[in-house]
Design brief:
Largest sheet: 7 strands, mixed
Number of helices: 5
Structural class: alpha/beta
Order of helices and strands: EEHEEEEEHEHEEHEH
CATH superfamily: Alpha/Beta hydrolase fold, catalytic domain
Shape: globular
Protein name: Alpha/beta hydrolase
CATH architecture: 3-Layer(aba) Sandwich
CATH topology: Rossmann fold
InterPro entries: AB_hydrolase_fold, LYPA1-2/EST-like, PLipase/COase/thioEstase
GO molecular function: hydrolase activity
Distance between the termini: 32 Å
Keywords: Hydrolase
CATH class: Alpha Beta
Strand order of the largest sheet: 1-3-2-8-9-10-11
Family: Belongs to the AB hydrolase superfamily. AB hydrolase 2 family.
Helix content: 25-40%
């Protein structure tokens, strides 16, 4: 495990034939928060876990917001570009090369993963979004997402990520050519054990798909 770069982060190479999980924490979290998920999602995987660069009342976040669910979309766009640049740096610095990278984000981390997937599919083509929502309200999505695969895991009673926003997100992803896996459970904001099992199966399916191509 190495901590380098002026953007605080953690890196572990994992097995050379396994994906690298880009771990993106929720509001108030750190680069350590999602590490326990690695062994459950893909035990042989490497991980790249940066810390959200924005501060909100002392809490780490990935982009600014004006209030709950009211995102500063200009900042979302800027920060997703910065994350894409960081991923490119990490691929070179750590010798990740062309290994598959799968973003795994929770809440605010899911939203930055989704924004980066929508705007920079060359950086994030595969993503697992736990309790995420559509992050680019009012802005068009023009990228070709035909090589992208996105898994959305949401609670139907989640006031922080309303289900209508999730439905819109899925429709926009599909309209741009992405493959979308949707899983909606009872309950609200959070990561349910059933969703971890579902995400692990989904990540494994990506690996199998590559081996069969």
């Amino acid at each position: 495990m190495t901590i380098t770069h002026d953007w605080p982060h953690l890196f572990h190479a994992g097995a050379a034939d396994a994906p690298v999980l880009l771990l993106l924490h929720g509001t108030g979290g750190t680069e350590h928060d999602l590490l326990p998920l690695v062994k459950e999602l893909a035990p042989e995987a490497g991980y790249l876990a940066p810390r959200g660069p924005v501060q909100e009342h002392g809490m780490n976040r990935w982009f600014r917001r004006f209030g709950e669910g009211n995102f500063d979309v200009d900042d979302v766009i800027r920060r997703s570009g910065e994350l894409a640049d960081f991923i490119a740096w990490a691929r070179d610095h750590y010798g990740i090369g062309e290994r598959r990278l799968v973003a795994v984000g929770f809440s605010n981390g899911a939203n930055i993963a989704l924004a980066t997937a929508l705007l920079h599919p060359g950086s994030v083509a595969d993503a697992v979004a736990f309790s995420g929502m559509y992050p680019l309200d009012g802005r068009p999505v023009e990228a070709d997402l035909s090589g992208s695969s996105i898994a959305l895991f949401n609670g139907k009673a989640d006031a922080m990520a309303p289900i209508d926003s999730v439905v819109r997100l899925g429709s926009i992803l599909e309209s741009r050519g992405a493959e979308v896996h949707r899983a909606v459970r009872e309950g609200g904001h959070g990561i349910h054990p059933s969703e971890i099992d579902g995400a692990a199966a989904w990540i494994a399916s990506l690996t199998r798909k590559v081996s069969h191509d």
